[in-house]
Structure formats: structure tokens, C-alpha cells
């Protein structure tokens, strides 16, 4: 096995290096460095004593190493350090926060040149300097060294933070720090490489309907959300785990029939199957235009093009989408969509009519459909433009209605309560978290969950699904139906205490490493306390055309690739003379899994100003 390679920079008198070297075994190579030249250490007897100890142990010691230019110091073959340590960086007595921030920024940027792919950068800081909530008390951000923002400049994210004396060092090393009051309350910050936050272009998708290929670009507000296969066979994504558990538990009480879900495309004709009670889904649907694609289709499916990804949809797989009752013709797309309008399915409820009309529909069995759905929505903590839904459809004889419905509700409530309390402490398990709240129509229920146990910031209940019993228009062959729709993403977030829904979509493999298939254990993010950047935007609106706030949020989502975590309305101003109206909003940028810098945010913000001008007929001020 290759040795573990450690690099210490900014050593003062090499006390840390000397103490650490005593704890290392043969499998670790240590390189200890300091900025000073040997002559500058001449008057420090402790330094010479430590250097002597290091030499005896054959440790590589280097002088005059500027940690902001590590690539100049280490040849290519000497790089790839597994751990780089900088304890208590400081530019010198008179340096203020700005200078020290600059030192950190340049150090992190330079680390990127010499750090192994899965390496760690450890930075110990005195109490309060880092500026993250891990500091007790937390220092005001503008007075701190803003360590997470400086690390982002080197493409690094904070993956762990703990008191300096606890985990990092042996007792011998502690002896070195114990005398120094500065180290009380100090924190060791561990940074790792982030996936790049590059402006990824929307992918082009192609689908085959009948013998014809069609292509469409991924909507910009959904970059990275299509065709991820979280619910499919090899996936060990928590969304799949929670779905399987939910279904397995219901299977103990009801006979189950699992249906294969079609691809999430819904042709315009297909939308007419929507019953009256969910028509408003469509106003928030993502519409896409399919274009006939006459390029050499089969060769592209071999993966030769990086930009094109195929939905290998056969016509039969889309069969749920066709509009039944029109001469039985499969007219969903074929022949009509040289430029057809199609939307990404906003809910699985669009499929209910097709499901209950299949000839072998079994009364008393739970019919189950699971798949991704897509809806334009405001930027809010628990509202997502793409999520996974599971739909349970139960049909029964009308005079059995009350008994069947009650049995379904009771079991579902028990199952959800038990899933939701798995990672909570015993004391929180005593009271029920799930409530079925009857709606004003006296028939449907919202499935609400008390969330204060999960996060102190959550004061409101969260709606994770609905039970629809009002679908009276859907009586078929003397049967009536109940539909239960569950948002699996919200359920998974609550079960594992994942605070940010965007984390479910990360491409970072470390996310999935948290989950043992089939098990529910507490989740720990690989990116802690990511920095926030706030920008305000104000603009004149065209009062005749109006202002579409949903579209404003959708453009913000697209331009920032989901890096905007909140949009807050600040004020409305009407000019006393011209009567022109201007609106002002505050945008907060923060990613949950990738390093994001002030500069990247500034360029997104200026792009955002251009896009709203183009698409929303407003004039930024
Ligand atoms: C507060 S002392 C900490 C020394 C030592 N790491 C410890 O924990 O005792 C700050 C150290 O940062 C070092 N330093 C400042 N700028 C540096 C740079 N550009 N490259 C390397 N070291 C630097 C200084 O030389 C000084 O030794």
C-alpha cells in the first residue's frame, strides 16, 4: 500500500511536527515546513531541539516554504498529499482580518495544486476566527476570517470540524498546546475537494417513439434532474430505500400490484385526462418542444456523444400517456409531434385514469406507481421543482368505502410514524408526528408532519402527501377509488434529517456513502456551514404585462443552477410622478454540496439581471 503522505506548513518552532512524528508509524511519510530560513530560527533553542528530534526520525524538513506557493516547492512526483496541516495561521502581529483572510485564500488555492484527490486540508483556528456556527460563540461573519468562503476559492468544502484538542492529536502533542491560552476553544477545520461548480449546459435528451427519434433540451431550471434513475434497480439512493420500506409495510396489510411507470413525458392531448381536481398542476408544468431528430440515432446511443443522453422509450412504455377513448388510436405523439408540445409530468395523478381502466384492475389491491415528477415552484426550503412521487390507488365497492378508507388511513399513519421516528431520540417517539388533516371539501386529507423534532428552525408542519377520496368523477365499473400521493423526497429528508432537498440530487458520491441499503441511520453531510452570499435586485415592471413571480423564481433557479436558497420580497415603490412601479427582492446564494465563491455568485447575479430583463419584461435599476 502507498504510504500516507502528510504535509505541515507554517510550523513555528516545529513543536507540533516533533510531537506528531512520535505518533506516526511506518506507513506515514511526514514533510514538515516553515516559512523562515534556518538563520531566523537560530535564537530559538526549542526549535533546534525539535529539529534535532525530527532529523533523528528521518523526517523531511524544509525551510523557506511559502504555503501560498506550494506548487513551486514540490515537484510533480512529490505532490498528492493525503493531509495538509496549517495550525493557527497568522500573517504576523499587526495583521488584521483582511490580511489573514488573504493568507487563507491563497493557501487554499495553493493546496489545490498539491492535494490528493481524496485528500484533506486541516486548518486549526483560534476561537471565533473561522466565523462558522461551530464557533461558540460565533463571531460576526464580517469580523471573522470567513474560512469556508476562503476555502471555496480553492474549490474546497468544510467536511468536518471539531475542538482542536479532541480528535486531532495525541496527548504528547496536547502537552505542547496546554500552556497556551490561545488554543482554548480552538477548532480544527477539515476541508476536502468539492465537485467543480461549473456552468454545466443543459443536456440534450432524445426519445424514440415508434420508429422516430425526437430530441429536447433539459429545461435550464432542471439541470441534473432528469433521468437520474434513483428509483431504479441498482440504486441505493435513500429515496428508493424509503419507497421500498413504505411499500413493504403496506404490503403486510393489502395485496399489492406494482405498475411500471412510464417516462415522465406527457403530451398535450394527455393532459385532458386530468380530472378537475388537479388541473392547476398544469399551470406549473415545464413545457418542452420535441424536435424530430434525424441524426444517426443508433450510433449516438453507444455513448459517443457526451451531450446527448437518450431516454430509451419504446412506444409501449409511453402507452399510459395516450388519450383513451379516441378511436383507440395511439395518437399521443406519433405523426403529430414534428414540433409537438409535451410537458414533463407534474404529478403521477395524471396516470390514475389509465390505471383504473386497465381490464385486469384488481379491486381491493393497492396499485402502486412510483416515479419522478416536475413542477415549477417558488424557491422555498421544502418545495422542489423535481421530486419522486409514489401513488397508491385503491379501488373498492362503494358500500365498503368507509371501512376500506379507515383501514388504509390507520395503517398508513402507523407506518409513517414508525419510519419518521427511526433516527429520533426515544423521548421524541412518544407522540405521533403524523396527522391527516381533513380539507375544506370534507373528503380529502393532507398528510402533515410535525417537524420541530427535526430542526429547531422548522416551526410549521410539513405536508408530505395527500389522500384523495373526492375523486367521484372517477367511479368506474361500480367501484370508487382512493388515491394516496406521497412526496418521497420530503419523506426521505425527514427520515434521515437531511436539511436541504438539493442534497438528494448531488452528484457527489460521498452522499450515497452515508446510506447502507435498507437501513436508516442518521445522515451527516460532507459539506458543513457553506458560505452565504446576499444580493439585492430591484427593477421597474411593465404594469400592462404584469409581473410573473413564479417565472422570476424559475429564472433565478436556472441561472444559479439551484444555488439560490431563498428569495425574499423586500419592497414595492411607486414613483410619485411617473406612477412606475419598482420591486425589490433579496437573493441569498448558498450551495449545499459544492464550493461556491463570491466571484461565481457575482457573475450569476449579473447574468440574472440580464435574463429577467429578457424574459420578464422588467428593467433592472
Ligand atoms: C501563530 S503562528 C503558528 C505557528 C505554528 N503553526 C503553531 O501552531 O505553533 C503563525 C505561523 O504562520 C506562518 N505563516 C504566515 N504566513 C505564511 C506563509 N505564507 N507560508 C507559510 N507560513 C506562513 C508564520 O511563519 C507563523 O509561523
TrEMBL record:
One of its GO terms (molecular function) is rRNA (uridine-N3-)-methyltransferase activity. It comes from the Eukaryota. Transmembrane segments: none annotated. PROSITE patterns: FDX_ACB. One of its GO terms (cellular component) is cytoplasm. One of its GO terms (biological process) is rRNA base methylation. Residues 528-621 form the FDX-ACB domain. Pfam families: BMT5-like, FDX-ACB. This is Ferredoxin-fold anticodon binding domain containing 1. It comes from Pan paniscus. The gene is FDXACB1.
